[in-house]
Specification:
- By secondary structure, the protein is of the alpha/beta class.
- It has 16 helices and 13 strands.
- The protein has two domains: 191 residues, Rossmann fold; 186 residues, Glycogen Phosphorylase B (Rossmann fold, 3-Layer(aba) Sandwich), CATH 3.40.50.
- 46% of the residues lie in helices and 15% in strands.
- α9 packs across α14.
- It starts with a strand and ends with a helix.
Length: 390
């Protein structure tokens, strides 16, 4: 039996939460694995201890910089006390002196993204620019300190290899169709009512909290173009966030996008639902017609797999990661072109043959992603480290 210590203090939103929620149950169900888990407030109430899973009750709240120093100071003691064989660091940063072999999960494309650094300079957010440069330096150093670094896609692994000058392994994240679709949790009544009111409109879905790198402004401008081209048929952009800074994680200024909505007179077209519980998210996909992502930085993009599994045609910015995940099941467009995005959406909306073809391809592609396979590959790496094979 191998004993894995998972440091998931950084799992507080989006992909980090999805990762822990899917990986830990699979660890817990195996006879050949024991897991010690360190989590923050977002997950502590969800995780049940068992004979194979120990949840540490260390309490920590603070910025990512403070978390980094907290981990460097206190985590080695916790790992040694647990008796773990391997440390799995899930938050992009490694321990400088890990008492056991260490696998680093690197999932943040912002440190390698020239587009992101250019974007925040143009917005005048120099504090975020400095913060990103500092964290990027720590992330690059972490790749060198870890015994093995794992990326969730080959495209992002290639970026990391070039950026850090060290080998990086790619292991796709997974998708659990049974868990995603077989929940009895309904949509909140307010959300359901708002979706019912959209019947007859072209409904474009984008699942994300607000941030700069998901490139909301390009999508909003595309909706303005579609409003004119589809008239009199209404078009609605359905968002799982609100364009208010305090309603989103991080320091991103969502009011920039909200102001664009007002200037383009799209107050009716942009539907801000706010956060939708993950257990009810599959209902939302089934209420929409097209999934679109204009993101200019990405490492995997779970919503793309969810959309394909839900039978939604996918329109994605032309990133290597998006092409790797969706292959021929999506249509692609230059990431900063609202006109090209609108044209791709029109191509799907106006052709039933195109929609049917993309739906079939998406369903087939979504089957390729498995959390069981991910865990098996991760454990093989861990056993190799213990045996001294890496």
């Amino acid at each position: 039996m191998i004993h894995l210590f998972i440091n998931a203090l950084s799992a507080s939103a989006g992909g980090g939460l999805t990762y822990v929620r899917n990986v830990l149950p699979r660890m817990a169900n195996r006879d050949d694995v024991r897991t010690t888990l360190l989590v923050g407030e977002m997950l502590r109430g969800e995780i049940a201890e068992s004979t194979r899973v120990t949840v540490l009750n260390e309490s920590y709240n603070g910025s990512s910089a403070r978390r980094f120093w907290y981990e460097q100071r206190d985590l080695p003691r916790l790992v040694r006390r647990s008796g773990a064989d391997v440390l799995l660091s899930t938050g992009n940063f490694a321990l400088f002196r890990s008492p056991v072999p260490q696998i680093l999960l690197s999932r943040n494309a912002l440190y390698t993204s020239a587009d992101f650094l250019r974007d925040i300079r143009q917005r005048g957010d120099y504090r975020l620019w400095i913060d990103t440069k500092i964290k990027g330096g720590l992330a690059r150093w972490s790749v060198h300190r870890a015994d093995c670094t794992v990326a969730p896609s080959e495209a992002f692994a290639a970026e990391l290899r070039q950026w850090a000058g060290k080998n990086v392994v790619s292991i796709h994240h997974g998708f659990d169709r049974d868990i995603f679709f077989c929940t009895a949790v309904p949509l909140p009544q307010e959300v359901q009512s708002r979706l019912d009111a959209l019947e007859g409109a072209v409904r474009i879905l984008f699942v994300s909290h607000y941030n700069y790198y998901r490139n909301f402004e390009t999508l909003i401008r595309a909706v303005g173009i579609l409003k004119a081209k589809l008239h009199p048929r209404p078009v609605r952009l359905v968002l799982t966030c609100k364009l208010v800074s305090k309603e989103n994680p991080g320091s991103y200024q969502a009011e920039i996008a909200a102001d664009l909505v007002r200037r383009l007179d799209l107050g009716e077209e942009v539907v801000e639902l706010g956060t939708v519980p993950y257990a009810a998210l599959h209902h939302l996909y089934q209420h929409c017609d097209v999934y679109a992502t204009p993101a200019y930085a990405e490492t995997f993009a779970h919503p793309l797999v969810e959309a394909m599994a839900s039978g939604l045609p996918v329109i994605a910015s032309d990133l290597a990661v998006h092409r790797e995940i969706c292959q021929d099941a999506a249509l692609y467009f230059p990431r900063f072109s609202p006109k090209a995005l609108a044209e791709r959406i029109l191509q799907v909306v106006e052709s039933s043959k195109q929609r049917t073809s993309m739906q079939k391809a998406g369903l087939m592609r979504s089957i390729s992603f498995s959390w069981d396979n991910h865990v098996e590959a991760l454990l093989a790496l861990a056993r190799g480290l213990v045996a001294g094979d890496h």
